[in-house]
TrEMBL record, chain A:
GO terms for cellular component: plasma membrane. The chain crosses the membrane at residues 6-31, 43-60, 66-92, 104-123, 151-168, 195-215, 235-257, 264-285, 318-335, 347-376, 396-416, 423-442, 465-485, 515-534, 554-575, 587-607. GO terms for biological process: amino acid transport. This is ABC transporter permease. It comes from Methylobacterium oryzihabitans. InterPro entries: ABC_transp_permease (IPR001851), BCAA_transport_permease (IPR052157), LivM-like (IPR043428). Its main location: membrane. It is a multi-pass membrane protein. It holds the Pfam family BPD_transp_2.
UniProtKB/TrEMBL annotation, chain B:
It comes from Methylobacterium oryzihabitans. GO terms for cellular component: plasma membrane. This is ABC transporter ATP-binding protein. Keywords: ATP-binding, Nucleotide-binding, Transport. SUPFAM superfamilies: P-loop containing nucleoside triphosphate hydrolases. One of its GO terms (molecular function) is L-valine transmembrane transporter activity. InterPro entries: AAA+_ATPase, ABC_AA/LPS_Transport, ABC_transporter-like_ATP-bd, BCA_ABC_TP_C, P-loop_NTPase.
Amino acid sequence: MDPSFLVLQSLSGLASASSLFVIASGLTLVFGVTRIVNFAHGSFYMLGAYLAVTLVPRLLDLSYSPWTFFLGVILSAVLVGLVGVAIEVLLLRRIYRVPELFQLLATFGIVLIVQDVVLKVWGPVDIPGPRAPGLRHGVEILGQRFPSYELLLIGVGPLVLGLLWLVMHRTRFGVLVRAATQDREMVGALGVNQARLFTTTLFLGAFLAGLGGALQIPRLPANSHMDLSIITDAFVVTVIGGMGSVTGAFLAALVIGQLQAFGILIFPKVTLVLVFLLMAVVLVVKPWGLLGKPDAAASRTVAPEGILGLRRFRPPERILAGLAVLLVLVVPLIADAYKVKVATEILVFALAAFSLQFLVGVGGLVSFGHAAYFGIGAYAAGLLVTGPFKAPMELALALAPLAGAAGAALFGFFIVRLSGIYLAMLTLAFAQIVYAVCFQWVEVTGGDNGVVGVWPAAWAASRGTYYYVVAAVVLAAIVALRRVIHAPFGYTLRAARDSATRADAIGIDVRTHRWLGFTLAGAAAGLAGGLYAFSKGSIDPTMISIPQSVDFLAMILVGGIQTVMGPLVGAGVFHALKDVFMPLTEFWRLALGATIIAMVLLFPRGIAGATLSLRPRRPAPASVEASA
Amino acid sequence: MTLLVVDRLNKRYGGVSAAKEVSFTVAAGEMVAVIGPNGAGKSTTFGMVGGQVKPDSGMVTLDGEAITGLPSRAIWRKGVGRTFQIAQTFVTMTVAENVQMALVSHRGRTRHLFADATRLYRDEALALLDGVGMRADADRPVSELAYGDVKRVELAVALASGPKLLLMDEPTAGMAPKERVGLMRLTARVARERRIGVLFTEHDIDAVFSHADRLLVLVRGEIIAAGTPESVRADPRVKQVYLGEAGARAAERAKRLVEVPA
């Protein structure tokens, strides 16, 4: 290979590393101080790009010079910084003390809201930005042309790193940020005005994201998918670098930039997979990233978020459960074909949400990528039926949970080595790998379009019959999984969640049990995915996307994370509402985002949790909550 | 009969020696206290016996079997129960369920998928709770107990596997004075009845001098004195580096306490 080509490839890797670092540095700073992993950071980036494609051309009309171009870029970043301040004051300030799952969900609510706002303001069409005056052409390097704007970007990363270093080491604000990153409670105990510190940090973080977005406009048109595509990259960079470490983010961005630049030459299809594999390897070797430190708060004992106490159904609940089963059975007799389809989907999602509750509520393993195992099951079933095997539906449905379990066992092997926010990030990363594979491996998976013609066997072809197939399988799976929650295995998972130290001291191999639990949940999700593929008649990558994972989390949040059966209620309510309201409004995502945020702020215990608190009960769980 | 033999354990953290040639023994039914100022290496020594800390060199032998450097859950299987400085319990479970969990693990049934966990080994758990005076609270959530009672439950959990040795890290930390005496008496009785060796660290001088059969005094990773409470109390080096004058007086008081047996 030509050495000059390698140099240029490496330079373009440096340019993307630089952009990635600018964005990730903001994310890692905000996490360090607030301990919130801000999903909306990608939205800040997108807003930066949209503001820049709006502002910069106007400024260039006034005066065509590089100075006005960069003035416009900085101005956009400042505006995004102000949006960050507004979000801190209005939302984040209220959720600093809630469990991290709720924080992630609430910031994802912002993502949804911003998506709809951007669509409303700028429309669905990509908006290309102007090129920077004076940097429109290439420079000759070793006989090849290299865009001069990319050269400039290469310089931006180290410049931002240098400026951040000055801020962190030469200003009072910077010293406080570093102190808070090490021990937030101590900073509070020393009488530092935390509200102002957090607001300023959010400004700086959002400013950096906005700057990253605004700087992209000559390379990349502003589009409405930028937010989620960048946030996964930014997560990966901050996790590899060590959350809270700016220098770590810089190192990680450099490595990833080069990996992408050269990976694309060797494995053009699997660069994404390479990046996530790097992340998995780094986290297994160094569970807190390259330069990260264990969270001081991680060693403190706090009441777990999830199912608090188990008991058998009492008579009223038995009657309720009986009525629910009866209702499930009569649906095809009283409802039209469309409603039967919706009911089928509700049953499928109920199983998926229940399997997620098994992980989150029982095992304390917050999975942000549960759609991966749902999707693996759906793709396994769909491809078995439509692919060269032309397998029958029955076989496909039997293999779907095995596929889900295999995927969960593979990824879970790495995931259970971590805890807390790192665990959540790794589940998300693995889900993105599965998504990328299904998206990019067009020959097998049909890429973006997916595969159609996934129909049930002839005997189950009618909507009503297939509904009963789903109902029987789902009810059996839920009863079995509930049994496991009450069995020694479920108790062991809950014990490990309550106190891993104590579990270890009574001889429980925490990691192995978590891994088995993860695999079991993957199997149940895979089964749900297989059932879903046949009910839709097709498979496509949206089944594995982040929004699908968030839907599952929203279902258990709506139903009540502290109850065993709540997620089933949550799945029903959530999907029915989605079905009713989605056709009515063009702002479905905005409504969903606002609902998620409202749930986190007002009813963190969900519907089932709220009904529980209406009636007198044992004081026990209340005292646990009080200490939470 | 010698139950635990700790032979020349060493552990360094960077330039700091947390344990230097630490050797001692614990016999069945014997209560041995490890005392020393903060940072003396008590927790390190404890961790090396319990499996949380891997020693750089040296041997730990339990009942004639080498357990050096095994993971803590393997050491538990060899017969070492543990309680922690800050009580570690399963806070969303009841008192009985906490003990049942230990029994389920002891019998190797943690992967059982269909049995009803709340009914497994319940009678056995109740008997263990009876032994620590907590049977009446069996069905209360452990989260609503007073801290002294939580410590008793933790003791029952530690006893569930029928251990030969109990490791208790500051058993009375965070407890009211009255509860402390009760817990130490209970521990001493259990140890004698069941012939369990107890190794404990403690800051409370009263508890140490009135309940330990033997004492080890650790300072900067080294055992500077070992022996009966009387001989340690009399050791001038111990007085100098650890007890101080006020501590020596407290040790005298505790001596009088023990001379009036309960």
